[in-house]
Amino acid sequence: xxxxKEFFVLGFDIGGTKIAVCLADCRGRIIDSxxxxxxxxxxxxxxxxxxxxxxxxxxxxxxxxxxxxxxxGISAPxxxxxxxxxxxxxxxxxxxxxxxxxDLAKHxxxxxxxxxxxxxxxxxxxxxxxxxxxxxxxxxxxxxxIGGGVIVNGTLLQGTAGIGAEPGHMVLDLDGPVCGCGQxxxxxxxxxxxxxxxxxxxxxxxQPDHPIMRMEQVxxxxxxxxxxxxxxxxxxxxxxxxxxxxxxxxxTAQALGALMMIFNPQMIIMGTLAYYSGDxxxxxxxxxxxRFAWPQLREACSLTxxxxxxxxxxxxxxxxxxxxxxxxxxxxxxxEG
Length: 337
Ligand SMILES: [Zn+2]
Fold this sequence. Notes:
The chain is built from 11 helices and 12 strands. It is of the alpha/beta class. The protein binds zinc ion. Zinc ion binds next to helix 4.
């Protein structure tokens, strides 16, 4: 297939509650974006109409029509059936089993590509961010949960059932804390933001005199305990906080080490939690890594944070659309910018 000179794609970024729609050109430049009213909190057929109305409006505003559109990308939180293009029931949405991929493809009469937000984030960082030019890279969302995307030999790893990759649910300890997925001791159960908050609350709820509970930002209200509070408590030198933090760092190193041993990546990009923690996380992680990965693999891999920052949602929404053309040899990521 010939490389296409100029084309446009629409991206739909489905969040837990909100839906952002954006229009991008073939260099991945976001031309315009808008929020679709009602998000995922209204009946799907109404939400779909809002989404397509928003998309149509963006095209009109840019002086384009659906004829100028080559593809539609959709980034959504799991659970989903990527092969069927269907979103399953997610805790924050009122939708259940919605065929969003085919519905958007039908409306715009172009291919629509659905992927989970971590894979889509990996593609965005690969095409437009830090991992540009890498053949082997890993992206970990590290937010309330831990999602992951893996590029192997220049291909996005999706697995035989279309579930790959879920590094957040690698079991790191048989006796570890129970995870939201039902397993015990997952990476996410140790290091996901939601799990950290829950564990702090379980441990400290009935200890009003604990130095963490007496912090200015907590004032005895255990519901305020979360990852940010833990970070502040570590910075204040509270010993119990240091102990909890140390476990987060050790488990992060264990997970990164396992990923290095399997995939030998050039780069592991770590999202939100690593971004805000900086050296507080990375220094202990580097210290623990030799316990989990061979020197050649550690030396080959740079540990870093995303380049795209707040734009990652929009670029993740359009990235699956670009990947569709990339795989056909019909599109190459821009060289720089
Ligand atoms: Zn899990």
